[in-house]
Amino acid sequence: MRVNKLIDLWTNDQPAFWIRNEELTFEHGKKLAQTWADFINVELEHGPFDMTGLQSFMKGLVAGGPTKSKHKTPAIIVTLPISGRDRKHIEYNHWMFEQVLDRGVHGILLCNAEEADAVDAFVEVCRYSFQKIGADKGIKQGKRGNGGQLEAAQIWGIEPKDYFHKADIWPINPNGELVLGVKIETKRGLQNAEQICKVPGLTFAQYAPGDMAMAFGYPNEPTPQPTEITEARKKVNQAIKQSKIIWMDGVTEENAIEKVSQGLRICSTPQLKGAHIVPLVRNDIP
């Protein structure tokens, strides 16, 4: 069994389901330890950047565990108030990546990915500097520093010396337990979608409808969708599939079976209906 349930699912060609959480308390962590979902998105892009709260929440997950699948905690993926608009923007804010990783989370979803060099930098700041795996594929030396591994290792239930090696990016490192994703949600990101999705070390990506609609001048995703929005979604999803990284998108009860059969492996759902959708596409893994 992996530390990160998502990797257990994906290596068995199974889709994963998620819920969002913004309440960062110990007691809420205990409650969500038994969630039906496979991973929890901790939303820090628009919410407070609360590391004390995140620390308490992670400890609550451990106290309320193990999960129904016998993992120590659900996987935790964090979105940050950082845009992937360029390399400098990532490097100037590298401390935010270290802070959340040192709390013991299992991955990060980078918002507003707009160019491949920014995503290259994203991969670098999330990896320890001693890692050499992936250098032959163009990944530069990692920039994550020593010092935060003790707390993260306690959350994962492993020794700090083992955390050093497991806290690397899957699947570029087959033994890694961290996953990194991007949202493509602007016109510039759309223009660079193919190059972004090909960045070595990236695990998953998604087309983000809300911000992309705004980029085209709509306050909300329009219904019915105009051609420009339909083509934008199509272009991003094609880039994801062609790069063979994990595809993340929304599903409903009506389209879940079809989209999973097309290769979707991260499913977002209406929160109250998600638990009912899981059995439609997955019945062999809790």
Q: What's the CATH H-level superfamily name?
A: Phosphoenolpyruvate-binding domains
Ranges where pLDDT stays below 50 over 5 or more residues in a row are none
User: SS-based structural class?
Assistant: alpha/beta
Total strands: 8
Gap from first CA to last CA: 13 Å
Shape by Cα distribution: globular
- What is the tally of helical segments? 14
Strand order of the largest sheet: 1-2-3-4-5-6-7-8
How would you explain this protein's 3D organization?
This protein is an alpha/beta fold and 286 residues long. The protein has a single domain, classed as TIM Barrel (Alpha-Beta Barrel), CATH 3.20.20. Helix content is 41%, strand content 15%. The protein has 14 helices and eight strands. It has helices at 5-11, 26-32, 51-64, 87-92, 94-102, 116-125, 149-156, 160-166, 187-191, 193-197, 209-215, 227-243, 256-261, 274-281; strands at residues 16-21, 39-43, 75-83, 107-111, 179-184, 204-207, 246-250, 266-268. The chain has an eight-stranded parallel beta barrel with strand order 1-2-3-4-5-6-7-8, surrounded by four helices. Strand 1 (16-21), helix 2 and strand 2 (39-43) form a beta-alpha-beta unit. The longest helix has 17 residues, at 227-243. The radius of gyration is 18 Å and the shape is globular. The mean pLDDT is 95.
